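Typical record was shown:
=====
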Amino acid sequence: MYDGDDIDFLYNLQPHGWSTYLLYINGDIYNFAITHAFSCPIADMIEAIMLINKGAIESEFIFPGEPSGYRWWLRINDKQHHKVIITISEISDFFTKADKEKEKVIVTFEIKKKQLSTLIYFQLLKIAALLEEKSYRDRRRGDFPFVQYK
């Protein structure tokens, strides 16, 4: 498990109900194709991170694909409560609840809560600013949860 601070995120809100999420960890890049057809993955991510920041011991969210997806399981480090351990696993079917033990783990890493929140916040700030442009907004109508963002 990686426990350094060489971690970054890129959330690209693409047109027509899709997004690409890139996760950079110590030189390795993980690419997640996300659909917005079944849920609002941005709102789900915000809710899970806010739960952790409000004191929850663990939370999770799913970035859905078609038909698969990616479960992000966040849990507080037992000994260092300012850090979060994140395990990302591939789920074979977005609609079927599977046991975490049967899922294929893609990566597990540890990140400080402040770094996690900062990285996510600035990706969302970027998207919100881009949505002020009419042509960008028109092609992504309804794919950004302004209520949860604020």
